[in-house]
Write a structure and sequence with these properties.
By secondary structure, the chain is α+β, with helices and mostly antiparallel strands. It is 41% helix and 15% strand. A four-stranded mixed beta sheet has the order 2-1-3-4, sandwiched between helices. The protein starts with a helix and ends with a helix. The model is unreliable at 1-17 (pLDDT under 50).
Amino acid sequence: MRRLLLLLILVLSVAQASHIHWLGDYEKAHLKALKEQRPLMVLLVEKECAACSEMLSSTFRDQAYIPWINENFITVLITKDQRQSYPIEMLYTLTYPAIFFLTPQELFLSDPIFGLIGPEAFQKYVETLK
């Protein structure tokens, strides 16, 4: 029984490390970024957006850079027209998905990424942030 429990814990910990740990509330994420002095990575998506779903399942799951992102960024997933507020004027886009990298003080760290980006291209982009 003990071995089964240890195996289950190991499997769950590996599974947890293979995806981004998204927060859904921008204000809470921003406060956490300020407190921990870590930048924000904000992903804006639309409901029923095929490119957004593809990016979430390929670019942000089971990739080598995922642990680095989880360790170094506060990640926020925002759905267009969601109830929780976010700085829409600063993160304005007509193209979805869109990724913004911000300092804890909400200054841009880099140019945003607009549209679908695959794992290889995102890996190259992430290398510029290291």
